[in-house]
Amino acid sequence: MMKLKLRGTDIFISFTLVCVCAICIITGMFANFLCSLLAILFHESGHLFWLCKFGCPPDEIKISLFEIKINDVSRHTRGVSQNFLIIFFGPFVNFICFILFYLLYLKYNLFYPLAAANLCVGLFNSLPVISLDGGQLIYLFLTLRFTPEAAEKCVNIITFIFIFPLAALGFLVLFNSKYNFSLLFVCVYLIFSLAFKNNGYFDGG
Predict the structure, then answer these.
(1) Is 204 left (phi over 0), alpha (psi -120 to 50) or beta?
(2) Range 170-199 average pLDDT
């Protein structure tokens, strides 16, 4: 990984991301890739704003092909309301950007990809999956009534109840369209994220 340093925060960028970026430039797909990357950066800026606002900037940020991981080591020392704002503002920024770019799209067509990318990133991260913002917000609400262990079990159950019908729908879309595997890819990504990261809230991502 390439390593940069910005105001005490180590930023790691994977070589895989750089290679994919180069391939997109060569194949003429760079515009779509850039829109997706900008939407993800907008999303993470929502998290980072409140992290810095509460005086706990991350020690490191890892930028890879499929995710941007913020190392939030102070998560368990903050209150629920602060953690709620930090998590909530990721998707919230995407939805605000979607509205702004959609309004611009009504006058200038070139803003449509940015509007669509922000909507997709916002909706994806709002899914009730423990490794995503939506699942983490549910976890925070549950901890107000239950123990952290019970809240985690509840969100894990919600996650599996949500993922498997979504995976079945992904296969159905693939068979009917013959080539559209985007929904199935999302399900596979979510399953792998659960298998290898277990619980995004406790990982500090």
Answers:
(1) left
(2) 70
